[in-house]
């Protein structure tokens, strides 16, 4: 059988008519250009990513050069005296994302298992559609709901824990509400890929629904579930508007769970438009840190997936 290269050059087509040979050569050229176009698209993504990294490094270098390691250890961000410390924002970003993941993962997995295993057929599609719609709600809506509803409720019900209603924990709860639809939708889709014969075999052996979910379904789709969690974590790390509404925007380090704080995205959103000079460079350095944190999270997830695949291969 003639290869695309042979068709393009006319090799191995001696037994065909001239019209057929030209048609095959034209299709081969189209296929080659199609492959080159796809490669260009893929390579453009790498170029764009490299350009973003280079731009962040170049723009943040003046602040990093001026403050050095102190930029990462300073516990306050005070633009009026040009003291810029990233520690409060880094702490707030990591803590709110961790709270969100701790709350969202078990709820999302529970909803996904209910939808795929126990939900009545008449409710399955409406509930699945509703969850997908929740994923499309703009983040500012969640922020306003957190400011107008959740924060007052927390302040009223738990005044000793949430004296102001807003804070790091409140932001973590809002982020959990936001990422639950993402993790649930991905988990539901990957659970649906488990062959029915595996479930039926387990039920036939007398397993309960809990045992089927724990010993059959979840281990079979572990990689997809981790992917859904990472997708939710990525959104939590970079969420801006909703967090800005409820986190308190305190620029001093507050190492509590419920105190006022800030995050990298919220700090950049609040100050970037009115910044210049060293302050703008420091904000861009925060953007570089957020980029590196997200990259490290994704790399760690890939490491876990590779180890999990290796053990079960």
UniProtKB/TrEMBL annotation:
Residues 90-301 form the ABC transmembrane type-1 domain. GO terms for molecular function: phosphate transmembrane transporter activity. The chain crosses the membrane at residues 38-61, 89-115, 127-145, 157-183, 282-305. Keywords: Cell inner membrane, Cell membrane, Membrane, Phosphate transport, Transmembrane, Transmembrane helix, Transport. The keyword Protein biosynthesis does not apply. One of its GO terms (cellular component) is plasma membrane. It is found in: Cell inner membrane; Cell membrane. InterPro entries: MetI-like, MetI-like_sf, Phosphate_PstC, Phosphate_Transport_Permease. Its main location: membrane. It holds the Pfam family BPD_transp_1. It is a multi-pass membrane protein. GO terms for biological process: phosphate ion transport. The keyword Cytoplasm does not apply. PROSITE patterns: ABC_TM1. PANTHER family: PHOSPHATE TRANSPORT SYSTEM PERMEASE PROTEIN PST (PTHR30425), PHOSPHATE TRANSPORT SYSTEM PERMEASE PROTEIN PSTC (PTHR30425:SF1). Belongs to the binding-protein-dependent transport system permease family. CysTW subfamily. Part of the binding-protein-dependent transport system for phosphate; probably responsible for the translocation of the substrate across the membrane. This is Phosphate transport system permease protein. It comes from Salinicola endophyticus. The gene is pstC.
């Amino acid at each position: 059988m003639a290869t695309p290269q042979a068709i393009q050059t006319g090799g191995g087509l001696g037994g065909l008519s001239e019209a057929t040979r030209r048609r095959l050569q034209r299709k081969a050229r189209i296929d080659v250009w199609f492959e080159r176009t796809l490669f260009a698209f893929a390579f453009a993504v790498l170029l764009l990513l490299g350009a973003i990294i280079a731009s962040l490094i170049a723009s943040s270098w003046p602040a990093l050069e001026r403050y050095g390691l102190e930029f990462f250890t300073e516990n306050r961000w005070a633009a009026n005296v040009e003291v810029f410390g990233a520690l409060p924002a880094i702490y707030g970003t990591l803590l709110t994302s961790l709270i969100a993941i701790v709350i969202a993962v078990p709820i999302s997995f529970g909803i996904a298992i209910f939808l795929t295993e126990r939900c009545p057929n008449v409710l399955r599609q409406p509930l699945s559609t509703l969850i997908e719609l929740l994923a499309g709600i703009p983040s500012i809506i969640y922020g306003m709901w957190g400011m107008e509803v959740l924060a007052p409720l927390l302040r009223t019900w738990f005044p000793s824990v949430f004296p102001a209603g807003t804070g790091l924990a409140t932001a973590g709860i809002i982020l959990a509400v936001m990422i639950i639809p993402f993790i649930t939708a991905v988990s539901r889709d990957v659970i649906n890929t488990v062959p029915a014969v595996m479930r039926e075999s387990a039920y036939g052996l007398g397993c309960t629904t809990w045992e089927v979910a724990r010993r059959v379904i979840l281990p079979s789709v572990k990689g997809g579930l981790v992917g859904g969690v990472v997708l939710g974590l990525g959104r939590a790390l970079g969420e801006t508007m909703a967090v800005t509404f409820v986190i308190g925007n305190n620029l001093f380090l507050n190492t509590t769970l419920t105190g006022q704080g800030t995050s990298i995205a919220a700090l950049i959103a609040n100050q970037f438009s009115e910044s210049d000079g060293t302050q703008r460079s420091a904000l861009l350095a925060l953007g570089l840190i957020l980029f590196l944190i997200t990259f490290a999270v994704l790399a760690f997830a890939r490491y876990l997936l590779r180890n999990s695949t290796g053990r079960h291969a």
